[in-house]
Amino acid sequence: xxxxxxEAYGNALARIGKENTNIIVLDADLSxxxxxxxxxNVCPERFFNVGIAEQNLISVGxxxxxxxxxxxxxxxxxxxxxxxxxxxxxxxxxxxxxVKVCATHAGITVGEDGATHQSLEDxxxxxxxxxxxxxxxxxxxxxxxxxxxxxxxxxxxxxRLGRAGVxxxxxxxxxxxxxxxxxxxxxxxxxxxxxxxxxxxxxEAAKVLSESxxxxxxxxxxxxxxxxxxxxxxxxxxxxxxxxxxxxxxIGGLGSAVSxxxxxxxxxxxxxxxxxxxxxxxxxxxxxxxxYGLTAKxxxxxxxxxxTRK
Amino acid sequence: MATLTQDVKQLVQEKAKAIxxxxxxxxxAAKSGHPGGSLSxxxxxxxxxxxxxxxxxxxxxxPNRDRFVLSKGHAAPALYATLAEKGYFPKEELLNLxxxxxxxxxxxxMKHTPGVDMSTGSLGQGISAxxxxxxxxxxxxxxxxxxxxxxxxxxxxxxxxxxxxxxxxYKLNNLTAFVDFNGLQIDGDITKVLxxxxxxxxxxxxxxxxxxVNGHDIDELHNAIEAxxxxxxxxxxxVMHTVKGKGVEEMxxxxxxxxxxxxxxxxxxxxxxxxxxx
Lengths: 310, 278
Known about the structure:
The complex is a heterodimer of chains A (310) and B (278).
Chain A: H1 5-19, E1 23-27, H2 31-34, H3 36-42, E2 47-49, H4 54-66, E3 70-74, H5 77-83, H6 85-93, E4 100-103, H7 122-127, E5 133-135, H8 140-152, E6 157-160, E7 182-185, E8 190-194, H9 199-211, E9 216-220, E10 223-225, H10 229-239, E11 242-249, H11 254-265, E12 270-275, H12 285-291, H13 296-308
Parallel strand pairs in A: 1-2, 1-3, 3-4, 4-6, 5-6, 8-9, 8-11, 11-12
Antiparallel strand pairs in A: 5-10, 7-9
Helix pairs in contact in A: 1-3, 1-8, 4-6, 9-13, 10-11
Chain B: H1 6-30, H2 36-39, H3 42-52, E1 67-70, H4 76-86, H5 125-139, E2 146-151, H6 158-169, E3 175-181, E4 184-185, E5 188-189, H7 190-194, H8 199-205, E6 209-214, H9 218-230, E7 236-241, H10 264-275
Parallel strand pairs in B: 1-2, 2-3, 3-7, 6-7
Antiparallel strand pairs in B: 4-5
Domain Transketolase-like pyrimidine-binding (chain A): 3-169
Organism (chain A): Veillonella infantium
Pfam family, one (chain A): Transket_pyr
């Protein structure tokens, strides 16, 4: 198991923040958890705690951006995108301001804190906003690359980061490009399109499937918006069936984004691995992933189902 | 503290009158909009843009300019009238307020209207953005100042107090907020809807410098703004006692004119009244 993407976020911020003095980091009393304290330790003069006030967090970020700064604003995904949704919509996306909303503790792997803290709708909420770019890094290397890219891009970005450690899946020398997916495993019978914490299990599922002679392609779709429509259509044409996998409600997230491309271009059977429109509960991340159907085994079963529908 | 000369004061009063005329004309032409709370801030708008703020209509994005955030974004007609009067865009554009394919949106849009420093309209957010701009000025050691106008009803938004706490904590003395204390919101008297009173004491409790003025008295407003500039310990809140609909007798003190446009006939009569034509 590799590092959590939030760790990579803190490290990347500290690294690029030292050189780029336009970067300002804001946090809402969670800097030790979101890892913005890593930045704070090296650039204390450009770190500001707004206290437990997420609405102000986002709008202050908008003001900083309007004055030419590059604000990275952080909290848990639940509060950043849930409580401050309208601030992100009206103060950041509408005027297309250069604010980077980097939210951690997304998904069910928040674990023991329970349902109030497990954001399962943030991808859906963020990708519905015009001008917003939505990215879900799968591992440490990708998270660092995404943060680096976000600092260089002019416009609103949502980066979804996790609390728990994840498998390392990206190759050395990886660079992030918005709208570009990465094929991790090639295959011809079915394509598994995953993001975030489900990319590791997707690769594992492909291995299991190969033992029963099912050739599964695995695509890491970190860039949810813009999405790599070309890779999706190619997968539909070449493999004839798609399974999506995400640590998110099956409504509105990666699965929905992929299916929008599929039905408009090349309809093929699809299955959706994700939280089945329900709230989570307290438990260890591992227990929760198993109970809510987010494991390699669940992906394998979804693949078997989708293949029978080809 | 420099007091205003008679000439400058007269100029501001004339500009305030011109702004009031444009407010009535633009809202009448639009057949919708918010005249009451626009008319109540016409005096401070004229003073800010003609005396207090370092701005240049020819260079609306100058990095060292003073910033203005209309947190009570529904008073957009007052902002647009001021910007047009000042020369940011032609005054004829005011008659296209709220019309499709034109730049003057129902609420301020920084992307399409020259001189608008922040998109606002959803209450409570503008003051936070103003805090962000003031913070950026502090980080850069820049000498620009940030001004923002809040509605008194807007103070019911919790985010205002998040921002107030933030500005007080970080001692943003380059930030001056005005409260347009006209006592009325859409559903009526602010003390009956949900009282935000007492206003000065609340800002004081959040470590702001607070000054109360008659919001239609140019000298009092000017002295308060000068005092805010001189205050180094933190942000200043200028509580302006105003009359909603100021300048048009039929509208004055009437909540019903918060978000209602005059008819074409009323529009002409109101403009004549403001201009003093019998």
